[in-house]
Amino acid sequence: MLAKNNSIVLSKLKYKDNDLIVKCYTQQRGVVSYILRGVLKSKKSQTKIIYFQPLSQLQIEENFKPNRQLQNIKEVRLNYIYKSLHSNIYKSAMVMFLSEILSTVLREEEKNEALYNYIETALQYLDSEEQYSNFHLLFLLRLTRYLGFQPEHLNINYPYFNLETGVFEASDSGIHSIAGENLTLLKQLLGINFDALSTIKINAKRRQEFLNMLLYYFELHLDGFKKPRSLQVLNDVFH
């Protein structure tokens, strides 16, 4: 069945000598893996690879067959042309980091248009912004809503947050309770949209500490989640 499907590239992997497997998050079918046969064989074919950079937004015309593990692409074009996301070294490091996380946490092979639209819109915002050093923090925090473990806003004025239960608490409940600067930043981020990120003023050390806490929150709520390998690159670039 021929169909058009808006897609965001999550990862690509060389297969055999000349083929490429590309995993995408799609608007119509959730996670879909495509096989591009022979694209590594000649220079002419390799020009197609530029479409499949991490988090590229594509429109794919696919020959979709249910129950097939690897789908075929008939045609592909850019659905949105980034101005800086792949050319700016800082944004590129953030893209590498976020694509690795999304490739890990997005598993459903079913339509979730709200989640797709969130990722699509957020990436376009990042592409257009000049102040973006805290973008990944809010992006991941808002992503928890779609993954089913968004922090509960009830009792947000309480002095502790429990990473294991996802709720604010009146007293310290043990190793999973956070307070202090991480708690303050969590409350700030829960109360803003992307266009207010420039109001968050933190240094690199605080940013890294909060990100480590956030990744631990993901580990507690998602089976098999591990800190991405690209985390060190991200920290080095934004140090």
Description of the molecule:
The chain contains 7 helices and 8 strands. The protein folds into 2 domains: 1-81, Nucleic acid-binding proteins (OB fold (Dihydrolipoamide Acetyltransferase, E2P), Beta Barrel); 84-239, Up-down Bundle (de novo design (two linked rop proteins)). Strands 1-2-3-5-4 form a 5-stranded mixed barrel. By secondary structure, it is α+β, with helices and mostly antiparallel strands. The mean pLDDT is 94. It has helices at residues 43-46, 89-105, 113-128, 135-147, 180-190, 204-221, 231-237, and strands at 2-15, 19-26, 30-36, 57-63, 71-80, 160-162, 167-169, 177-178. The radius of gyration is 19 Å and the shape is elongated.
Give the topology, please.
Elements: E1 2-15, E2 19-26, E3 30-36, H1 43-46, E4 57-63, E5 71-80, H2 89-105, H3 113-128, H4 135-147, E6 160-162, E7 167-169, E8 177-178, H5 180-190, H6 204-221, H7 231-237
Parallel strand pairs: 3-5
Antiparallel strand pairs: 1-2, 1-4, 2-3, 4-5, 6-7, 6-8
Short description:
By secondary structure, the protein is an alpha+beta fold. The protein has 2 domains: 1-81, Nucleic acid-binding proteins (OB fold (Dihydrolipoamide Acetyltransferase, E2P)), CATH 2.40.50.140; 84-239, Up-down Bundle (de novo design (two linked rop proteins)).
Characteristic key phrases:
239 residues; alpha+beta; OB fold (Dihydrolipoamide Acetyltransferase, E2P); de novo design (two linked rop proteins); 2 domains; 5-stranded mixed β-barrel; 3-stranded antiparallel sheet; 7 helices; 8 strands; 36% helix; 23% strand
